[in-house]
Amino acid sequence: MPRRRAAAPAVRLALLALLLTSLPGLTGCGSASGAGSEEAKSGAPGDRAEPAVGATPPLLDSNGLTFPMDVYLVPAEQRQELQKAQDVLIDQCMRRYGFRYTAPEPAVGTDVYGENGRRYGVSSPSLAAKYGYGDPPQQAPVRAPRPARGTNESLVLDGPPDLDPKSLPANLEEAEKARTSEKNTGVVNGIKIPVAGCTGESGLRLYAPDAAAVDITFPQNLNAEANERSRQDSRVVRVIRDWSACMAGHGYRVPSPLGVPAALGLTDLSGARAVTTATADVACKQQVNLVGVWYAVESAYQKALIEKNAEVLKNFKDQQQARMRLADSLSG
Known about the structure:
There is one protein chain. The chain is mostly helical. It has one domain (about 10-30, about 55-330). Helix content is about 45%, strand content about 0%. A two-stranded antiparallel sheet has the order 1-2. Helix 3 (about 125-130) runs antiparallel to helix 10 and helix 4 (about 150-160) runs parallel beside helix 6. This is Lipoprotein. Keywords: Signal.
């Protein structure tokens, strides 16, 4: 199978919004957006058949679940190390132009729901009884004000403000050719600047050093695709219908466990009404084994996608190990 072309960088490569949260739009209470980029869509019409699922164990709190795709997803600790490594690389790049880069303080906080705690909506009896559909109160981190930057310093850091993301290099090799080309007229202190600034260069150095780099979001896109397919699976549709009927018995007319607050017009997500609703929500999930059924079905879709994309995923894993070695070498 051909390797996926690495995605072009945005500012700080956005440090990959898809990586910074385990499954954007799926971990909260709302419904998710699409299943991931078209690039990760690997299913032909014949692949849409529902995979076989064995016995579905009774499960409730989804926070402790592990999925087949987990071995390819970058864990939080590694994401933090890669961010630190990128900050070092940005500073190294900025020094070439006579500037220094100080990384912003990272956000501090603990997610009591974990990576998968709200994958299928609220599922923890204790958290539902305490917070309803809301998040526990957290003290906002105190951040030092960003230092003011001059025009040249900003240009070196982020590149020209009118950059077209679609025109950016896909890997570091392309970026270096673009930086040294005659068309690049951005010069600071006698040196041509990277096309997307030091943030773009550092991101490519970590995530797309050459044309063989697998798109850093590829496993995440497969993860999202499996989740989207599972939502349309007849077994999940059936158990959601059973859950909805259970909720109706408690006086709540809601079609899906994803998006309950919006469906019921709950504005205070941790208020008394939300707590009462969330408690009934979790009880209905337990009654129909929604988490157990959905988890088994989604895992089956993940296994099928892993098998279909085995070569690309192996390359991704090898490249991730190389990234971590680079990050480790920069931490000393």
